[in-house]
Amino acid sequence: QKEVEQNSGPLSVPEGAIASLNCTYSDRGSQSFFWYRQYSGKSPELIMSIYSNGDKEDGRFTAQLNKASQYVSLLIRDSQPSDSATYLCAVNRGSTLGRLYFGRGTQLTVWP
Amino acid sequence: EAGVAQSPRYKIIEKRQSVAFWCNPISGHATLYWYQQILGQGPKLLIQFQNNGVVDDSQLPKDRFSAERLKGVDSTLKIQPAKLEDSAVYLCASTRSYEQYFGPGTRLTVT
Predict the structure, then answer these.
(1) Which chain A residues contact residue B104 at CB under 8 A?
(2) Are strands A100-102 and A4-6 parallel, antiparallel or unpaired?
(3) Residue B67 has what pLDDT?
(4) Phi and psi at residue B23, in whole multiples of 5°?
């Protein structure tokens, strides 16, 4: 079983729609969870971090964490063509400064 | 605040040659990471430094890869000799606590 798994893409949504990206992780002791956005040919850019169960909202982005189900999700409201990118889920298994385990990413396309 | 700096941005070498990458982390970030990202995959950790000490190098192919972080700031990652499967983007990241910030990466092509 892989450490971090993301829903297979690509995901395509129309402009203005809600994009839903999902991620599951295998280590029940994981403490910190992150979503990175990666444009083609660029490096990952941190867009959300979440540490406790529930929802965390930042502008059009909402991260949701359910540790009991070992599930993390990212919702993008009012999707824009500029949101088209690969979204990487990353998990820190417990150490504050420890490595991140990444999923393979979900490619999102927002069409006008 | 300046971000993580890396150089070179691109490198093309032949197999069995050597190559080195450089990283300068965000000022004040004591922890530095090198990740390898193969096309279509998420980044994979190669080595983690805390100041100038190695914390985790369990995934570093030590027969060909080496890394150092002198004086606890800049870091270099070296590959010698390179193999075709080393073609990837090499990402440097740094952190002060939980959130890791990535540099622009070095795209390596081994022919």
Answers:
(1) 42-43
(2) unpaired
(3) 97
(4) -140, 135
Rounded to the nearest 5 percent, the helix, strand and coil shares of chain B are 5, 50, 45
Tell me, rounded to whole angstroms, the distance of Cα B28 from its chain centroid.
18
Over the stretch A54-64, which tens digit does the pLDDT of each residue have?
A: 999 999 999 99
Distance from CA of B84 to the nearest CA of A (A): 20
Contact B37, B105 (CB under 8 A): yes
The answer to whether B26 and B3 have CB atoms below 8 angstroms apart is: yes
Determine which of A99, A102, A106 to mutate to test the interface with B (most B C-beta atoms within 10 Å). A99
Chain A residue numbers with beta carbons less than 8 Å from the beta carbon of B50 are 97
Residue A87's closest chain B neighbor by CA?
B42
The whole-angstrom distance between A4's CA and the closest CA on chain B is: 10
